[in-house]
Amino acid sequence: MVEPKEISKTSQGLSVVCQSDIVFSHPGDDVVLSCHLKPAISAASMEIQWWHKEDPVFHYKNGQMTVNIDFEGRVSLPLQDLQNGNVSLTLRDIRGSQKGLYICEITHESQSIQDTVFLHISSEDFRLVTPVGTVSADPGSDVILPVHLSPETSAVPLDIRWFRGTELIYQYKNRKEKTNFENRVSLFTQELERGNLALTLRNFQPADSGDYTCKVFHDGCLQTGTVHLQVREIQRCDDARLRHLHSVLQQVQNDILLQKAQLLQGTINLLQETLNEDEMRNNAFGPAPRRSNSREGIPPLMGDDGMHQTRTMEAGSVVFERNFNMHITSRTHSSAPNSKCHKRVDEMYAVADYLEIYFVSF
C-alpha cells in the first residue's frame, strides 16, 4: 500500500468520493461499491487501486489490470466509464469472508487520494433439512435425495459436498462441479439460488443403498445432513388379508349362483305349470302318445342338494337366445306334430331339454 503520508482526501482540488459509507448485501449477491472523482475528470490515465482492509483486490495502471486471486473472475472496473471519473468496483457472487472495509485509492501526479466504504454482508443462519425416514427406490430408476436450506437461502457461494459413507462422490465449489460418479450424480444447479441441494442419483442399483451425507461449508462453519437410501420392498398381503379377499370373492360367486338358480327354478316351475295345463287339455282330446324324452320321474334340476354342483353360467344373453331358438325350431320340426296340443307339448319339452343342456354345461 502507498505510504500513509502520501494519502489525503483531496489533491489540488481533486477528490474521490464514495456514494455511501456502508453497503448492505447478502451472500451470493453482486454488489457495486460506487465511487467517483470530483470534479468528474477522466481517470483513464490515473493509477486506481482497491483494497480490502490491507489486502489488494484490484489494480489498474496504464490500461493494465491485476486482480487478487481470491477475487479472480468476480471483480471489475467500469473501463468504458473511466472517462467520466467513475472508479466504482463491482463484486460478483460475494462471500461472507469478503465483508469489511474497502478502500478506493487514486494516484495522480504523485499524489494519492482515497475514500472508504464498508461492505456489510448479512449472514443468515440456516440449517440443512433432510427427509424424515428412509428414501426408497426401484432398481434401475433415478432417485432424488432431497436436502434444502431453511430458511430459503442462496447456496451459490457455498462449498457443497456429498458423501456416500466416507467416500466423496460430488462437490460443488466456485460454480464448478466435481464427481467420482461420472454421469450418475448431479445437483439442480439452477435451483441452488433457492437453497435446493438435492442430489440426483441415476440408474440406482441395490449396491448403492446406504447413508448419503451432504456437507455445506460457509464462513468457517459446517452444516451436515444425512439421507438413508434403500431398495423399495415389494408389498405383500398377509394371510389374514388373503383370507378376507377369498371370502369376499366366494360370497360374490355364491350370490351369482343363487340368482341363476332362482332364475332356473322359476323357469322350471313355469314349464311344469304349462305342461300341467296341456295335460288337462290332452285328457279332453284323448291320451297323447308316450314320448321317449318324457321328463316324468326326473327330479327338479335345482335344489338345495344340487346347488353346489352348478358351474358358472356363460355371459351373454344374445348367445343364449340364438341357441335356444335354434334348438326349439329343430325339435318342433322333427317331431311333426299332428295337433296344436301336441305342438305345444313338444315346445315345452324342447324348453326343458335346452335348459338342462345349457345349465349343466356351464
Automatic annotation (TrEMBL):
It comes from the Eukaryota. Residues 4-120, 124-228 form the Ig-like domain. It is found in: Membrane. GO terms for molecular function: signaling receptor binding. The keyword Nucleotidyltransferase does not apply. GO terms for cellular component: external side of plasma membrane. Residues 281-308 are annotated as: Disordered. One of its GO terms (biological process) is regulation of cytokine production. The keyword Membrane applies. Keywords: Disulfide bond, Glycoprotein, Immunoglobulin domain, Membrane, Signal. This is Ig-like domain-containing protein. The lineage of its organism: Eukaryota, Metazoa, Chordata, Craniata, Vertebrata.
